[in-house]
Design goal:
It is a single chain. By secondary structure, the chain is α+β, with helices and mostly antiparallel strands. It has three domains: about 140 residues, GSPII I/J protein-like (Pantoate--beta-alanine Ligase, Chain: A,domain 2); about 90 residues, EpsJ-like (Ribonucleotide Reductase Protein R1, domain 1); about 50 residues, no CATH class. It is about 40% helix and about 20% strand. The chain has a five-stranded antiparallel β-sheet with strand order 1-2-9-10-11. A two-stranded parallel ribbon has the order 3-6. The termini are far apart. The mean pLDDT is about 90.
């Protein structure tokens, strides 16, 4: 009898332990489920705020086009949005003029190599202490033919010998990251070049009101980097009204200025930022194309 009572007590303890473990596991599962629901709700709120911010940027750019035909860094759209408190979270972002950078796809216009743009890109590479012949490698990647540009170019035969093998793009770049597959562009070279180049759907001129000194110096043959920095400092208080105004403020009045590669207005803008609610953070980037006063079109959008 005493032994049976002992076994019964042990059995009861084991049953209680099992029930307690099951209850604890169920409570943990319930807590995990609640947290997952909270995270999903926070992500949904973040995405909603991100979409609202993107629409605000499109509205601001459309209004700016209606107000004037010149784009410069003193305008409202160019001011970064510092972390802005919203109910339960925050929003931060910026709008960056992509035509202040050199457009890699301008190297090929209407299916043919643009000697003018190639010269600009070669000067930019030299300013950044990179091999200027890299320009020909990008030309061969973007142009539709299979002919190698010398020196430094590369077509299918150069890429098919790699491991793994692949073919030359022979089409426009969609992002600057596409340079990682082009001959001669390692990670260090790409990161050195990234702040000064972009990849837009069509050939575009450089906006002299938003270009950094390195791009300005490359765009105007004979313009030294320190002279370009002086121009950038001067435009902060007084932007360039047109290309004639830009030409008049150049150190050398007879400097060759090609109107085909320079402008004071822009069509393409990059909207980037993040929204945070609770533990959820959503980063985003979107390329917008603005045509005159029309509502800007979304070229691409991605989470970052």
């Amino acid at each position: 009898m005493r032994r049976q009572r002992g076994i019964a007590v042990i059995t009861a303890i084991l049953v209680v332990a099992l029930v307690a473990s099951a209850a604890s596991f169920m409570a943990w599962q319930q807590q995990l489920w609640v947290r997952q629901v909270e995270n999903l709700n926070a992500q949904a709120q973040s995405r909603a705020v991100v979409l609202a911010a993107l629409q605000w940027a499109r509205s601001a750019l459309a209004q700016d086009a209606r107000d004037n035909q010149v784009d410069h860094l003193g305008e409202g759209w160019a001011q970064p949005l510092t972390p802005l408190p919203v109910e339960g979270g925050e929003l931060a972002g910026s709008v960056v003029d992509q035509q202040g950078l050199f457009n890699l796809n301008s190297l090929v216009r209407d299916g043919k190599t643009s000697a003018t743009d190639v010269a600009v890109f070669r000067r930019l590479l030299e300013l950044l202490q990179l091999p200027p012949d890299l320009a020909n490698a990008v030309v061969d990647w973007v142009d539709p033919d299979g002919e190698v540009s010398y020196p430094g170019g590369a077509e299918d035969m150069d890429y098919l010998g790699l491991e793994p093998p692949y073919r030359a793009g022979n089409r426009v770049l969609t992002t600057v990251d596409g340079l990682a597959r082009v001959k001669g562009f390692d990670a260090e070279t790409l990161e050195r070049l990234r702040p000064f180049v972009t990849a837009l759907p069509t050939a575009t001129p450089v906006n002299v009101n938003t270009a950094p000194p390195e791009v300005l110096a490359a765009a105007v043959d004979g313009l030294a980097l320190d002279q370009a920095r002086t121009l950038v400092d001067g435009r902060r208080g007084k932007h360039f009204k047109d290309i004639a105004d830009f030409r008049a403020r150049l150190p050398q009045s007879d400097a060759p200025v090609n109107d085909a590669v320079l402008a004071v207005a822009s069509r393409y803008f990059l909207v980037a930022g993040h929204a945070r609610f609770g533990r959820a953070r959503v980063g985003y980037a979107a390329l917008l194309e603005r045509d005159a006063t029309a509502w800007p079109k979304l070229v691409w959008q991605k989470n970052i």
